[in-house]
Write a sequence for this structure.
């Protein structure tokens, strides 16, 4: 029975559309849904600032030219609580960014989905860091 | 498990699905002041500060999956059963998971902003399993607006419709502008933490979001004169038994224009009364009543428990790097330019 219930709920889950879960400001007003972009780049600088962190990356184009992009992320506070620190993401690391280009056409995008080239998620906190949520979970 | 059970859970799942699809925020309801309390530990003795006040100090979180207003699809259903609550939590967590990419290349997908790891909205409904944070009126929804407030809303919407989404920074809400999230701040996507500090004669409440601090005198002084208007209003506190009661007036008329604000479309006439009661080592029963007869046809009350959270609390210096504001203004200018060029092209054909 429980399995049947799970099936019913899962089926309905598929019908759900995702509604905006707002960040500090409207990303939909800043970035263009009609201009998705995938970037592979090397971090040149991290801005761990509020209200949103920014990741600066160098991206080599097909013509060999290197272009610097700014990638907008979330508040550092949440990541600190999970044991993700400024040492977890540093210049020289390569990342993949799947996001949307800014409406004004400059080289900025949101980091809608950011991963390492091997597919690992970027922002999984590590354990044993002494971070608040780490201690809470007793890891 | 009976067929009836399956049928009722199926119906609930449909209600939840429909509720999640509804574009409107939420609402809720609750009973008396102890509504959100968990069972107090038997060994717990209410702590006191050095000068003998009930001790509310510490770092607390109001993160919860329970919506402010009861979704219309759950009308008449005040409480979830334990099983229903678990299903609801599961569905809301799945629904909110920003790592999902169900609707690529849409504004909805852009609005989810970034990976789910950046969010911190809690994983549970309130311990009472109420289906809304609003506990009064019993339907769990913000009461109807007065005719005067309805006219005001229509005029406001009309004025807004004459402007673009970002003609000026003043067209954007107070949160985006880093001015305030209002107080009390309802649960949101992250930074749902509060720090309470007490010294003789004063309580201070730090809201992590935009690190706003409320300094609340307890010495019985009157509110400031009427023509002084503040973003967070003018608060005065006193003790009623073990409950800290905070009475706030003198709001300005713009606080409605922020995200996660406490009080719906309340005007500058808002009279807010908050109640903080420590009920066990890890919980403060927290309720507030919104009274604004020039806006709502009746007062309404919200109950959202504060649960002990691990420290520290972090600074959230919103203006530090709010590039987003400049970017969305330049984005709006670029869209206007593109629209004008398109119109010119059509005109020359």
């Amino acid at each position: 029975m429980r399995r049947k219930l799970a099936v019913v709920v899962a089926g309905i889950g598929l019908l759900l559309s995702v509604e905006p879960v707002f960040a500090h400001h409207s990303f939909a007003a800043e970035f263009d849904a009609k201009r998705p972009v995938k970037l592979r780049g090397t971090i040149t600088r991290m801005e761990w600032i509020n209200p949103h962190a920014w990741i600066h990356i160098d991206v080599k184009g097909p013509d060999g030219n290197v272009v610097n992009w700014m990638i907008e992320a979330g508040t550092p506070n949440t990541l600190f609580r999970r044991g993700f620190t400024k040492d977890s993401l540093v210049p020289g690391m390569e990342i993949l960014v799947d996001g949307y280009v800014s409406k004004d056409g400059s080289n900025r995008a949101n980091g809608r989905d950011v991963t390492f080239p091997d597919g690992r998620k970027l922002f999984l906190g590590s354990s044993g860091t002494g971070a608040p949520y780490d201690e809470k979970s007793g890891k | 498990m009976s067929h009836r059970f399956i049928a009722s859970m199926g119906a609930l799942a449909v209600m939840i699905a429909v509720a999640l699809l509804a574009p409107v925020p939420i609402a809720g309801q609750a009973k008396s002041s102890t509504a959100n309390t968990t069972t107090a530990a038997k060994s717990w003795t209410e702590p006191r500060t050095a000068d003998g006040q009930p001790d509310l100090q510490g770092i607390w979180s109001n993160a919860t999956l329970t919506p402010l207003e009861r979704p219309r699809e759950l009308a008449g259903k005040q409480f979830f059963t334990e099983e229903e609550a678990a299903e609801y939590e599961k569905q809301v967590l799945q629904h909110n998971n920003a790592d999902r990419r169900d609707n690529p290349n849409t504004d909805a997908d852009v609005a989810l902003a970034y990976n789910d790891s950046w969010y911190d909205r809690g994983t549970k409904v309130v311990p009472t399993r109420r289906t809304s944070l609003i506990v009064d009126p019993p339907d769990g929804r913000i009461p109807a607006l007065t005719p005067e407030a309805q006219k005001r809303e229509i005029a406001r919407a009309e004025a807004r419709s004459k402007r673009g989404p970002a003609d000026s920074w003043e067209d954007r809400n107070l949160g985006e502008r880093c001015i305030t999230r209002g107080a009390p701040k309802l649960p949101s996507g992250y930074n749902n933490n509060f720090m309470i500090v007490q010294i003789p004669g004063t309580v201070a409440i730090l809201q992590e979001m935009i690190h706003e601090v409320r300094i609340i005198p307890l010495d019985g002084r009157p509110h400031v004169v009427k023509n002084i208007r503040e973003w967070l209003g003018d608060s005065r506190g006193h003790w009623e038994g073990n409950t800290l009661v905070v009475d706030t007036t003198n709001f300005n008329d713009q606080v409605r224009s922020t995200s996660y604000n406490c009080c719906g479309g309340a005007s500058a006439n808002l009279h807010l009364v908050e109640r903080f009661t420590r009920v066990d080592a890890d919980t403060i029963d927290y309720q507030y009543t919104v009274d604004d007869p020039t806006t709502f046809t009746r007062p309404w009350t919200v109950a959202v428990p504060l649960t002990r959270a691990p420290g520290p609390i972090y600074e959230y210096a919103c203006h530090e790097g709010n590039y987003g504001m400049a970017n969305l203004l330049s984005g709006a200018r670029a869209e206007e330019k593109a629209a004008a060029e398109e119109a010119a092209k059509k005109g020359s054909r």
Confidence is low (pLDDT under 50) at residues 21-37 of chain B.
